[in-house]
Design a protein that fits this description.
2 copies of one chain form a homodimer. Chain A has 206 residues and is an alpha/beta fold. Chain A has 8 helices and 9 strands. The first copy, chain A, starts with 7 loop residues before the first helix and ends with a helix.
């Protein structure tokens, strides 16, 4: 099946499966099943088997999935069997937290560029990265072929930053700013919005 | 239909609809349709109508949805027509960013308590809130009847904090720490994991 024919909702679940497999592997487990994964994730085992069937045959009835090989396969499918460079724009408290976040390694991403427009921040070092001026961002990202970025600026600055990122050749943007971005159809945007998650939980509280 | 019979995946989409309606309203629009919402959100209009039909009749064929009344209805359904107190535990860079985040207001939540275990941070003021000692957390949250919390501690501290929160009566936890939490079935947990979102996007890049 062509990549473009697989529903976004299915693709959206693959990283969840990959994360669960990684946890099982870290606990020393070698084999799992759609039933075990389903129980852990609150997804039906039939759904998991159907999702994976878009990409071929994994595991056999009765023997389950080999965790290492299914993980490798999912990484290949998701294009995270490589390491993507990531630019981070807006080095406030949140940007600083993400720059120091250890959770990107071994999952396909590495923050390689930090940008801010505040002259007092430009030139500062976080980890082993220097904060660069957002003015020069387009040229730097083009030269270094960076295709993934995270926006952690205030809402008012985010659209202008997104426009620059698109001009620079970035094709995937994770936006933490509380504003909907307008980008060309060829560019993917996802949003981190803590309120969505909170709302999904309090529905169940009286 | 009883609340518990409605699939989690449907509940998960309601906050997305509510956010889209809020944006339209802020732009001065009064009426929308499942087609317009669907186009904006990349969800089929049939799916949107089906999701909403779990909760009754909204809008009429041909006349669309009144944005204000559908918003009010979704707020009521999601229990965000009130303001939930939220405790924030772990006041590092990320906790500080969330404490200063303007996006909670008018969406059903207000951060009312900040906790940390670092003696140098305890007593500091962020906004109009004092950072309290995590040692006294259980008693404070019980007394103030706080049912919602966000964990922004390092991974190693998160499970112990979650245990304390559960003891304190918290029933909904948004976890930013990169670790799966173990909590009783009566407690809801959601995770903020930027890598999931990045992985969902680079699937589409070559």
């Amino acid at each position: 099946m062509a990549r473009s024919d697989i529903p976004d909702i299915v693709i959206g679940r693959l990283p969840i499966y990959l994360r669960a497999l990684t946890h099982l592997r870290q606990e020393g487990q070698e084999i799992t099943s759609s039933h075990e994964l389903g129980r852990q994730l609150g997804i039906s085992s039939a759904q998991i088997r159907k999702d994976l069937s878009h990409f071929g045959e994994f595991g056999k009835q009765g023997t389950g999935y080999n965790i290492a090989s299914l993980s490798a396969e999912l990484q290949r499918i998701l294009h995270v069997d490589r390491e993507w460079k990531v630019a981070l724009v807006g080095i406030g408290d949140l940007g600083r937290a993400l720059a120091n976040y250890g959770g990107f390694a071994h999952r396909g991403f590495r923050i390689t560029h930090l940008f801010d427009r505040d002259p007092n921040k430009i030139g500062q070092i976080i980890g082993n990265l220097e904060i660069l001026a957002v003015d020069g961002m387009r040229a730097v990202l083009r030269a270094d072929r960076v295709e993934v970025a995270m926006i952690t600026t205030p809402a008012g600055a985010a659209q202008a930053v997104a426009d620059e990122l698109v001009e620079a050749g970035v094709r995937a943007i994770l936006n933490y700013a509380p504003i909907a971005l307008s980008v060309p159809a060829s560019v993917r945007v996802q949003y981190i919005d803590p309120v969505l998650h909170l709302q999904r939980m309090v529905y169940y509280l009286e």
